[in-house]
Amino acid sequence: MGTRTDASTRRDQILGAAARLFAERGFHGVGVDEIGAAVGISGPGLYRHFAGKDAMLAELLVGISGRLLTGARRRLQEAADGTSPSRVLDSLVEGHIDFALDDRPLITLHDRELDRLRESDRKLVRQLQRQYVELWVGVVREVYPGLAEPAARSAVHSVFGLLNSTPHLGRAGSLPGRGDTALLLHRMARGAFAAAAEGE
After folding, report:
1. For the chain, how many structural domains are there in total?
2. 66/33 same-domain check
3. Pairwise CA distance, residues 166 & 108, whole Å
4. Domain of 5: which CATH number?
5. Which of 183, 88, 78 has its CA nearest to residue 140?
6. What is the pLDDT along the chain (200 residues), one digit of tens a residue?
7. Among 67, 68, 52, CA closest to 14
8. 67 lies in which domain range?
9. Running DSSP on this structure, what letter comes out for residue 191?
10. pTM of the prediction?
């Protein structure tokens, strides 16, 4: 008999394959049988884990928004011991860069397919994203106290746009290396916040 962990691992495998295939060929360009084949099970076998492609898409997009928010909250909790606001901001930037480099198909998927979600799921994604943005805004304004809230919010959205540009950087093998790319993105993100503060 399979364990709960086995089932969870299989769900994760299915979601990973679905994200990659949806990002490559679009939601409507991928069939259930193809997703199943990518993880070594029959298409109908997927229905033991998901109600269908729509459910996979919802779990992917709601899931990543929830994961980003949970990760950011954890980083703030870990910094509750007197860590400087600047270091907290560095930690948030590092966490988002990890997402941007490791989950590039999900960025593409979000950009292309968010409107395909049911209204309730789309609202949940937006709600999670707003909470994530406001968490960043609070930290940014601690680092740059002179930055007005609207300007800080605009800066956060701009930095997300910068970091989430990774799907347009070319194939993973054509990048200068994960470490170098992460450092570059980090410098650019902090530079963008500094530039926004200088303009106030």
Report:
1. 2
2. no
3. 9
4. 1.10.10.60
5. 88
6. 344 455 668 899 999 999 999 999 999 999 999 999 999 988 778 888 999 899 999 999 999 999 999 999 999 998 877 789 999 999 999 999 999 999 999 999 999 999 999 999 999 999 999 999 999 999 999 999 999 999 999 999 999 999 999 888 765 555 578 899 999 999 999 999 999 999 76
7. 52
8. 52-198
9. H
10. 0.88
